[in-house]
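hey
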């Protein structure tokens, strides 16, 4: 099964714009909440401020390719990281994740398995295949032998989550950590281990100014924060 979408990539600008003294981190959208907390911990530990620019990994990689000033790149998959010049052999896996079905609170449609998503009466949204969450979704559906016809393909995983939160979709496929972050607004349905995949998150410093932050990410304090947000160990 293939998921296709036409995407428009827009430049991402951090609120207020970073200064020369900030560590600018481009991070996959699924890392938003965890990296906000890690940035605070890093600032407390080092006195250096961190600006997090979060979006779909593919969008961020494209911006880096076009010369966007980033000190660190954290992707939701290895394939996207491999597009970055100099990342080969330098990137480090720092976290893992799992796919999960997101549904409206109370699961009003009684969705219990991946197969239920093929119901033509359901409004299902997924990530575009060009971004990691879409590639993982395709792999999960292929493993389960499910042919899905989504009503939309989103540019990042948080967009999928938001559509279900707002009632614009009945269900979607996101990361387990996204459901944990929105636990008061959505419910999750586990995907059977035989069909699920382990999403690996690599990180790389794009210059000397990002090396200390990468070292912090793989250290005990940041790893504990990642566990609190539901990410698995690398």
């Amino acid at each position: 099964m293939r998921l296709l979408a036409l995407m428009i990539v827009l430049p991402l600008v951090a609120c207020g714009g970073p200064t020369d003294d900030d560590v600018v981190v481009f991070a996959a959208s699924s890392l938003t909440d965890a990296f906000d907390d890690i940035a605070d911990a890093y600032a407390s530990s080092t006195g250096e401020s961190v600006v997090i620019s979060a979006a779909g990994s593919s969008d961020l990689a494209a911006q880096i390719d076009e010369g966007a000033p980033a000190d660190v790149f954290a992707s939701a998959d290895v394939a996207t990281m491999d597009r970055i010049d100099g990342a080969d052999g330098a990137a480090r896996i720092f976290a893992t994740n799992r796919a999960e079905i997101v549904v409206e609170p109370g699961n009003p449609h009684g969705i219990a398995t991946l197969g239920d998503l093929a119901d033509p009466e359901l409004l299902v949204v997924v990530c575009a295949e060009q971004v990691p969450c879409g590639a993982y979704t395709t792999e999960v559906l292929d493993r389960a032998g499910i042919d899905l016809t989504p009503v939309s393909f989103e540019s990042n995983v948080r967009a999928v989550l938001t559509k279900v939160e707002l009632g614009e979709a009945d269900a979607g496929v996101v990361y387990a950590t996204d459901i944990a972050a929105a636990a008061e607004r959505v419910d999750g349905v586990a995907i059977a281990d035989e069909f699920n995949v382990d999403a690996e998150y690599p990180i790389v410093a794009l210059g000397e100014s990002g090396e200390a932050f990468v070292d912090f990410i793989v250290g005990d304090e940041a790893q504990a924060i990642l566990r609190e947000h539901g990410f698995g160990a690398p």
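The first strand starts at residue 23 and ends at 28. The CA atoms of residues 13 and 48 lie 20 Å apart.
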